Amino acid sequence: MKVRVCDIRASGSAGLVVKFAPGPQWYAAATEGADVDTTAGSIGGELVLQWTEGTISSYGRVDASLTATCGRCLAPVPETHALDMKMVLLPRPGEPAGAAAGGQKGRGRRQREPEVVTVDPAAADDEEVSYYSGDDVDVGELVREALLLALPAYPLCREDCAGLCPRCGADRNLGPCGCVEEVESPFAGLRAALERK
To answer: Which one of 79, 106, 146, 185 is most buried, by most CB atoms within 10 A?
Structure first.
């Protein structure tokens, strides 16, 4: 979902309100490569985009629900994420800030030169910094990045998940499987050498 920079600029101090409610195909494509299932999940929210001296401030919240897979026992793990979309969007270095936002094309109208803005990303305080290019801001890409960063690297169904038995594959959360665990000693090789003598 792309939003034109000139529309953000024209919205004034109130900002441009963007309702984000993509379909299931977008959600599945956005999480491709992550070990999650989005078929029973949903994503949606609202963002406000404000133009301020060549930068675009974004704030709002996007809620996402999906199903991950436990890293120990492979059980489905329902997850919900509230994505804080507070960030500062800067034009890519060396590019004009919203080239089409600067003027109107047409007969009899002089096109204004686009402003080139130099902003120090460190000046953005506690906010996330991202970049936009050209005349559009891809809101879908901003949400996708925030969602992928919010996903846990190693989801667990519960903190004390016992996982699967490495011998028979039984779920140890359901009870003991009966396999005898062999504890390998670091001195096993030494013991074998001594027994051969």
So the answer is: 146
Closest alpha carbon to 41 in 147, 154, 159, 149? 147
Residue numbers of the domain that contains 182: 162-197
pTM of the model: 0.71
Tens-digit pLDDT profile for residues 60-74: 999 999 999 999 999
The residue type at 17: V
156 burial level (CB within 10 Å; 0-12, 13-18, 19+): middle
Residues 145, 166, single domain; the answer is: no
Residues 114, 167 share a domain: no
Same domain, 86 and 175: no
Domain count, the chain: 2
Choice among 11-25, 35-49, 83-97, 111-125 with the minimum mean pLDDT: 111-125
